[in-house]
Structure formats: C-alpha cells, structure tokens
Design goal:
By secondary structure, the protein is mainly beta. The protein folds into two domains: about 5-200, Nucleic acid-binding proteins (OB fold (Dihydrolipoamide Acetyltransferase, E2P)), CATH 2.40.50.140; about 225-270, Ribosomal protein L2, domain 3, CATH 4.10.950.10. It is built from two helices and 15 strands. A seven-stranded antiparallel beta sheet has the order 9-14-10-11-12-13-15, with no helix packed on it. The chain has a four-stranded antiparallel beta sheet with strand order 7-6-5-8, with no helix packed on it. The longest helix is centred in the last third of the chain and has 6 residues, at about 210-215. The mean pLDDT is about 90.
C-alpha cells in the first residue's frame, strides 16, 4: 500500500499523507457479513467516561471477521481484498468450496483468486494457510495466533505485524513477538502463515485535528494546563512542574509507566519481557 503526499496547499496538507487504497479490489462490503456499530464514546453502561478523548467520528459498520477459521480442509478462494474501517489491516473475503463466505485478516501480498486452506494437519506452507504451530517450520513469520486451542486468534492482528516461530519443545511452542517479548504457547494453537497486510499504515501522517475527529479521537489536553479542580496536575504559574511526586490520572490513580498487567497466571509462559523504551 503506497502512501500519497499532496502538495502543501494548506497548513493541514503540509504535513499530512493519505492511504492510496490501491491494493483494494472491492469497495462495497458483503452485506451478509455486516452489523451495525453503536457509538459508545468511551463510556460505560452507566454513562460514565472510562476512556477519555473519544467521541464522534464517521459512522461505521462492523465486519464479522472469522478469527477461528474452523472450516478445516475445505479450500477457500480469495474473492476480494477489502477495507475495514475498524482496523488498519486489510480483510479478505473468502468463498469456500460449498459457497459459504467469510471475512478473514488478509496477509501481506495475498492475491485475488488465491486458494488457501485451514487444517489441523500438515499442509502446504504458503501465506494465508492456517495450521497448528507444531506443523509450521521454525523461523516462519506468523500472525493471528491463538493463546488457547480452539479459542480463535487473539494475538498479532495489527497492520504489518508478525511474530516469529522460534522452536517447538515438548507441548509448547516458543514465539517471539514484534515487541521483543518471547513467550510459550501450546503447540496445538492455530496460527496463520505470513505478515498482516498493509505494513505502510504506520507511515500515514494524519496532519490535522479534523482527520483525527473523523477517526473518533477528540482533543487531548495536558493535565498541567488545567485548573486544580479539573486535574491533579492543574494549577500553578507559568511552566511549572506538576507539583507531585509522580504523575496521576484525573481520578488520582498512578499514571505513565505504571504496570497494569493483572494476568499473573500466564507469567510462567513469558520467557522474556518486551523491550523497555527508555
């Protein structure tokens, strides 16, 4: 997917770039695989804001993406590569031999009329095919990986993302994630071969606030620019620091670099934590 830059005819155009969508082969979604998406604007069921800076945005429909690919040993033809407004990656429309249609994450480089398969036994190693980890050669790039067998893909869905299968030892497979984390997964878990499509998505520069509002992202204001009644960092004169020992959220909880991981039961499967950015 090339990224296009326009001539700087305005302040918003000067530093912005756009997706050309040249890799799409179909521009209207499959109606049978669409459901309406209700806008929640970062609010809970009680109407309280639980995630700040969200709201508005263009109206979207949810594409029903099949993360399980549990139609085993039935060849599927890639009918189209489509845009999904709810993710950076592309999705592909699969038409199975019995006529059923499903959406799935498109691997990078997939072509229309390609025939791919999902199987629980050994098969041809090519992009788009889905097998248990134990039947995939070591060193291969994989995505859409299950954490537990028959659960459906839970990891590595982002545009351009991939993980590397390192080794199979006993009942566990070792994979290295893009973050640098090395973890073990049960070797019976399914994974799709290849890298997720649209790797140039990270190069897009949104350029102006208006394009962010179309994405449903509202303005972000620094806490120290607010009044004390609005934020713990607020108040003071000039470019003063926040006046606290450590940063806090608007509700007073620790912020910025605080560990939020609570799933300690899977710590034993993580051989190396992700790379820290200092």
């Amino acid at each position: 997917m090339p990224v296009k830059r326009y001539k700087p005819t305005s302040a918003g155009r000067r530093r912005s770039s756009v997706d050309t969508f040249s890799d799409l082969t179909k521009h209207t979604p499959e109606k049978s695989l669409l459901i309406a998406k209700k806008q929640r604007a970062g609010r809970s069921r009680q109407g309280k804001i639980t995630v700040r800076h969200r709201g508005g945005g263009a109206r979207r429909h949810v594409r029903l993406v099949d993360f399980k690919r549990d139609k085993f040993d039935v060849p599927a033809t890639v009918t189209a590569v489509e845009y999904d407004p709810n993710r950076g990656a592309r999705i592909m429309l699969l038409t199975y031999a019995d006529g059923e249609k499903r959406y799935s994450l498109a691997p990078n480089g997939i072509r229309v009329d390609s025939v791919i398969v999902s199987s629980q036994k050994k098969g041809e190693i090519k992009e788009g095919n889905r097998f248990p980890l134990e039947f995939i050669p070591s060193g291969m790039d994989i995505h859409d990986v299950e954490i537990l067998p028959n659960q459906g893909g839970k990891m590595i869905h982002a545009a351009g993302a991939s993980a590397q299968l390192m080794a199979i030892e006993g009942k566990q497979a070792t994979i290295r994630l893009r973050s640098g984390e090395v973890r073990m997964v049960i070797k019976d878990c399914m994974a799709t071969i290849g890298q997720v499509s649209n790797p140039d998505y990270r190069l897009i520069r949104w350029g102006k606030a208006g394009r962010m509002r179309h994405r449903g992202i509202r303005p972000t204001v620094r806490g120290k620019a607010m009044n004390p009644v609005d934020h713990p960092h607020g108040g003071g004169e000039g470019r003063n620091p926040i006046g606290l020992k450590r940063p806090k959220t608007p509700t007073g909880k620790p912020a910025l670099g605080v560990k939020t991981r609570r799933n300690k039961s899977s710590n034993r499967f993580i051989l190396r934590r992700r790379n820290s950015h200092k």
